[in-house]
Amino acid sequence: MLTNIENRKMKKRPHVAIVSSALPRKCGIATFSADVSRGISHLLGREATSFIALNDNETYEYSPKVVFQIEQDQLEDYLEAATSINESSVDVVSLQHEYGLYGGDEGSYIVEFLSRLKKPVVTTLHTILEKPTPDQYKSLVEVIAFSKAVVVMNQLAINILTDVYDVPIGKVHLIPHGVTDMFYIDPLFFQHKLNLRNRFVMLTFGFISRNKGIEVVLEALPAVAAEHPEVLYIVLGITHPVVKKHEGEEYRESLENMVTELGLTQNVQFVNEFVDDDTMNLYLGAADLVILPYHSETQITSGVLSQAIGKGKAVIATPYLHARDALSDGKGRLVNFKDPAGMTEAIKELIENPDERLALAGQAFIAGQQAGWDKVSHQYVSLLEEVVEKSISGQVKQGRVFTLPDINMDYLKNLTDDAGMIQHTLYGIHDFTHFYSSDDAGRAMVAFTQYFNLFQDASALQMVDKYMAFVIHARREDGWFYNYMNYQKEFPPQETSQDTFGRCLWGLGAATRVVQNRSPGFLARSIVEESIPMVKQLTYTRAQAYAASGLSAYLVLHDDYEPARKGLKHISDSLLERYRQTADGTWNWFEDFLSYDNARLAQALLLGYQHLGDSAYLQAGLESLDFLIDVQYQEGCFDLIGNDGWYFKGGKKSLYCQQPVDAGALTETCILAMTLTGDEKYLEMAYAAFQWYLGRNREGVSLYNPLTGACADGLGPDGPSSNLGAESTLSFIIALVSLYRWELVGRFNGTGRMEILKKLD
């Protein structure tokens, strides 16, 4: 079977002319078209799109992508544009249709353009009226007639097209309104950025006009603010350019006067800015609740609503067409048009019931997950390619919710050759001067075995075999492991590493859980059992912690193997003794310093409690984890301890370079603490730690690239490291898989979790 990429190579790469308004014109269709263009260009190449820009008698400094301009009310421009496209290398036209965008009666000039066009057209319909006037009906039917395919953004639009306009169902394609691809991050992070601490943020955004119905929310607010003075209603956006041209800022000024008259100056904020992607992401990220009190019942497509759903926001809206469709089945709250009392009730309900608000947000986000621009762009490209291919062949004639990214193992596989896993890279390119590493082979066994346990992907087992072969080759006669092997497959002189022993045992223990019915599983089990006596020789805390993870993994399926239980008890007792010697009530830690992979120490004690039941392990494990969180969780995000000096008791905490392994260890340990205690704060901290990778950090930048599956090596004052090594990506994947495991299994099992995990593995 051909892959999508191989199939695309066999097809002609179309050149797409987008007919629309274009940035920097401040217009919602222009923003949408820019996103479509970026998505197509990402898939087909930078030169795949050009623009035929619709002007509104204003002058704009367009990008070079704009190759022709049409003045809205000049019919001659439409005809010249059609001729220009016919004589060009354009293969297909993507027309963005909105009645008010084009000149003539109900936008009829665009029909003149289409009637002269000799290239196939795919039209995206932004407005579809259930009760059109005769001119509106005629104009839309003609646009559809000249189009080889039409795109709508929800099922309700399909129903209207087929029932009201008698459009053949085969001509209509459902592609949702795209939303910015962005990982879910707790609103608290953005609220800190906007200096909105301790506020409950409600948001209405987009172009401001009377149709927005903002006055309804203002009338509803006094009763809300009286009981909840922390409420802040933000109205974000500039006045719609067409409205401003005809009546200036009259509507905005009337709203500002209402705020004063109603005594809401501490509860309402107007942000008079054009809502570009950065501005939207910031304010929408900070919103606890989005309110869309529109007056027009006929609005069938709302980019604002799509973005709110895509970002996982609880939404209150009036029952206009798009909202009725998108917020059905409990995905949001609908309030009658022009109903301040109903709006007051809905707002208070969601403020006072945070679980309900988070449930709404979760359902909304799930519904919006298929609308990321990456997915939407693929759908547009597939449709455009299909239309071009049919035209060429003559078949067509002119006439609180938590979310996770996909698990992408590609980068780890690319780092692996026949010998093992490459330890370091230069800008993502293999750096063979820094050897292969047993440390990474051990962690890779953990990553791929856990991945297989959830998704039963047989290719993961092939990778496990490779890493196990490396670890076996690196095992010395005395039972320790070489860490580094050079490109000539030789082990250069090197010191014995306790950490390497612990990580290899961790990986081998994990391997016994996934391949227990295959020969490599028996091999892994035998090496684990042979290595257990050496556990007592470990004196480094982190080496002990890694070994504890390996023994815990082994005990999941072999809980009655007494040497493994004794080995885990030895480690747990040793760590507990270290903790009791150092912890003083303010510095609750195992040593007088915090360095790398810190949470693994607390994790080891929690694993000891999980298998052995000693409550002293649980108490010390939770106290040390709480201390670690207190030290690092600052202003809504984890500010991890940097390796440029670490953090010594009584000293100053190093801020850079922050290490991905620390975020991963915190994620896993907090999930384990949640599993053992049921305390929701640990679940929140697990996601906060994981979101450090995705931009919830002191620099506000993501270290992870979902397209490649690679994670940067660290976070410095200038942002993420340019190098993308094995350790960082492995830590990300292991943390991500642990969260998937929680969402798919752990969240739904309150008791008997060990039995559930045994069945799963």
Automatic annotation (TrEMBL):
One of its GO terms (molecular function) is glycosyltransferase activity. Residues 197-360 form the Glycosyl transferase family domain. It comes from the Bacteria. One of its GO terms (biological process) is carbohydrate metabolic process. Signal peptide: none annotated. It holds the Pfam family Glycos_transf_1. SUPFAM superfamilies: Six-hairpin glycosidases (SSF48208), UDP-Glycosyltransferase/glycogen phosphorylase (SSF53756). This is Glycosyltransferase involved in cell wall bisynthesis.
